[in-house]
Amino acid sequence: MERRSNGRVALVTGSGRRRVGNRIAGWLADRGYSIALHYHSSAEAAEECVEAMRSAGVDCEALKADVAQESDVEAMFAAVMKRFGRLDALVTTASIWETKLLEDVTADDVRRNFDVNALGTFLCARRAGLIMTRQPEGGAIVTIGDWAIERPYLDHSAYFLSKGAIPTLTRSLAVELAHRNPKVRVNCIHPGPVMFPSQASEEERREMVESTLVKQANCPESVCRAVDFFLENDFVTGVCLAVDGGRTIFAPESISRTRPI
C-alpha cells in the first residue's frame, strides 16, 4: 500500500544497513516523511532499501558520507537540500562499537571512536540544526547515546568515552539552536538491547532478555516510538531518555558484552 506524504523530510544517519537506523527510517516513511537514507560502506543494502521504499511510494534517496569528515557531512546536507528543499528531522544512529581490552586500547582507538560517535554526531546535528533555524517551522533532532554510559561494562572503554559526550552535546545544541529559533529542538535516546545482533547466539539472546527488568529485548519499535515522541512533542528539548527495559537501573550478575543496538 502506498504511503501518503506529510510534506516533511527526515535524514537518518547509519540507516543503510538493516539495523535500528533502518527501522527508524521505515517507521518515519510509514508516517509520511520523505527519507534521506545515509550510509558509509553499506551501499548495496542502502540501494535495496531505497528501491523498496520507492516502490511503496516513498520519496527516498540514499546518500553516502563518512560522518567523521566535515567535508562529507557538508556535502551530504547540501545534497539533502538540493534533493528535498528542506529538513524537518534528523536521527543520528551512525556509530562504531569495538571490543578491546583496556590494556590494548591505543590513542588511535580513542580518536577513531570520538571521530565517528561524538564528532560525527556533532557535525551532523550542528549542520541539520542550522538548516532548521532558517525554517519558520524549525525542526527536531534526535541523537543516539547508550544506556551503559551510566554503568559501563568491560572491554569498551574507547566506545564509552565517545558515547559519554552525547548527552552534553545534546543539551548544548538544544540551547544553541533554540537561541536562534525556538522551534528547533534536540533530544537524545539511550537504547538498551533493542535489536539482536545477527551473530548473537541463543545464549547471548537469552542473556540480553534477562538483563532487563521487563524481560524482553529485540524490540526496535520501542526506539521508533521514542523518536516519534521527540519529533511530535514540541514542549520537550534537551532531554535524554533511556529506552532500555530498565537496564540502566538493573544490574544482573552477568552483563552482555554484545552490542545493544
Strands, helices and their partners?
Blueprint: E1 9-13, H1 20-30, E2 34-39, H2 43-55, E3 60-64, H3 70-84, E4 89-92, H4 107-133, E5 139-144, H5 157-163, H6 166-180, E6 184-191, H7 202-210, H8 220-232, E7 240-243
Parallel strand pairs: 1-2, 1-4, 2-3, 4-5, 5-6, 6-7
Considering the chains and any ligands shown, give keywords for the structure.
261 residues, alpha/beta, Rossmann fold, seven-stranded parallel β-sheet, 7 strands
If you had to describe this structure to a student in words, what would you say it looks like?
This protein is an alpha/beta fold and 261 residues long. The protein has a single domain (9-243), classed as 3-Layer(aba) Sandwich (Rossmann fold), CATH 3.40.50. The protein has helices at 20-30, 43-55, 70-84, 107-133, 157-163, 166-180, 202-210, 220-232, and strands at residues 9-13, 34-39, 60-64, 89-92, 139-144, 184-191, 240-243. The chain has a seven-stranded parallel β-sheet, with helices on both faces. β4 (89-92), α4 and β5 (139-144) form a beta-alpha-beta unit.
